[in-house]
Amino acid sequence: MVFVFIVKNRLMKNTIAVLALSSFFAFTACKKNETAVPATAKAENKISNELMVDSVKVNDSTKITDSLKVNYTSKLLVFPSIKDKKLLDSIYFQNDKIKDFSKAGLQAYLDKEKNNYFTSLKNDNKDWVSDVTYAQNWYSSSHMNLISNTNNYMHIQYVGSGYEGGAHDNYGFSERVFDLKNSKKLELKDITSMPKSNIETILMKNIDKINSGTMDGDGEVKNSEMLLVEKIPASDNFYFDDKNLYFHYSPYEIAAFAAGDITIPVSWEDLKGTLNAEFKERMKIK
Hints:
Blueprint: E1 5-10, E2 13-18, E3 54-63, E4 68-78, H1 85-91, H2 103-124, H3 126-129, E5 136-150, E6 153-163, E7 170-179, E8 184-185, H4 196-205, E9 215-216, E10 219-220, E11 238-240, E12 244-249, E13 262-267, H5 277-282
Parallel strand pairs: 4-5
Antiparallel strand pairs: 1-2, 3-4, 5-6, 6-7, 7-8, 9-10, 11-12, 12-13
């Protein structure tokens, strides 16, 4: 299978791991409205004068047993104009088996991953699959979405979801920004010299600036009321626009599942005096 987050629920077991492999998680029936981000760019759309974007997809299903049906969907973006192998390896970091970055090569990869997934469920997991005695529909879904390409900073969101038994579906996100001018993945140190401990203080202060929309009998519940951690990490799961740097956290990462995914903004004003000179100039931050 492919992608970044693994959240497995097999027959009422809720085992959560964050690894650089296996299937992504998109939106579920338990999921709140998606955190506000710019609209995904369409495939084969010329995002800039130099960057051309296409995509490959797979969508198939199979019956594992009389009671169990499984659906598999996946989408990878294709970048015909990007030739730098190191950059491509970083873009497809969750798919380290990819050697051919052409459209045909990526399509062949997805088809193979789909077949491996179905075979695994049919052959490698007979013991627990055979315990499914009532009708169930399981699925694995993973997608790469191009969110923006501004000033040669390309933001890709990797998102996926899955259900393999248990109380609910699960989903997760990975945000990555690529510096196309310098052919590399953008790191936090390329944006700001502020120590992570200071950023973490700001994250805790700003935790409720974009609430998740979770409701209870008394109305909207604040993100801060559902935290599972004493310190919010300044992770590599970030993106930005002209106003803020945003840190995106998947369910269970810092808060209860009911909180959904949480996005915390850190304004350029919060980072004043620590912004990287090249970044500040390219983003036209005053």
